[in-house]
Amino acid sequence: MPAISSVLVIGAGTAGTATAILLAERGVSVDLVEAKPDLAALGSGITLQGNALRVLRDLGVWEQVRAEGYPYDTLGLRAPDPAGSLLVELEDHRTGGPELPATMGMYRPALALILLERAVAAGAKVRFGVTPSGIEQDETGVDVAFADGSHGRYDLVVGADGVRSWTRRAIGIDVEPEPVGMGIWRVFTDRPASVTGTDLFYGGPSYIAGYCPTSEASLYAYIVEPDQDRSGLSPEEGLAVMRELAEAYHGPWDEIRGSLTDPSRVNYTHFESHVVAGPWNRGRVVVIGDAAHSCPPTLAQGAAQALEDAAVLAELLTGHDDLATVWPAFTERRLTRAQTVVEASLQLCAWLKAHERGDVPGLIARVADLVSDPA
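-> structure tokens emitted (375 positions)
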């Protein structure tokens, strides 16, 4: 018999819904709770590397993802000169195997909806607008109190509740994300016909200016700047700042900049990073995804690592009959791999902040080699 028969998953993001799907379809009773009232999210895109696509295929949603997203196999490096000169176009690594694209760009809320519908179809019971308020565990299970006054008892609790994880704090893991010293402007807008893959502009007045196609009609574009307090800006002022920063970049940026007209499509966030450097569980409660590790998006591996967490955890939970044997195996398969990705992402940030010409292609290749092997 599997080590568990009932699970509470806290957080309906990528890691949480993937965990719910994999456990529910293997016969585990799954409750999935999400603090937000619905799936509404900031309307930006997401970059899914091949190793993320491999897990999405295992989740049974690959065909829907392919229909909604934009696959591509190249990475361009461009100069911040008046022509936006293409310096090199690299064949991207197919980390999910030769039968999958190297990369898929996608509208983030579309992916969230696909995963949620798959979780419900697999049998997970989903509740929105629900937050836990207390956890008590013993040798046989976990009692969870919710803020709406309800209670539940489970064999296991999975905290997939993001970088500000309530679960992580509730079980006494004293690790919090640290600022990296960079902030990112993102916008979801129209895709020029000339944009058929990701291009990165290194240098100029900002650290990075890049874009990623997300469908035949759309893309998301981003500019990474030194971290600063942008909280006082109105949406209109934020749009103006992004347009001003984008003036330094050309080539396809000249077309993209012309489409930056909707303040509601622009958002700003800070780069942060952390890793829980040790077992990610305390007894029968475990954290995964951004709750356990977060990194700047410089390698576009955040969603991939979250999906790998879910895949490995579900495999071990349903393949072992003793929960105590799950945790050493989970730590062995996930900690070093996630930590290596975080460290590589931070190395890219360090080079950019120091204005050093680091071996970016070499670092990307080393990470690609690591994640090409299934987790």
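DSSP finds ten helices and 20 strands in the chain.
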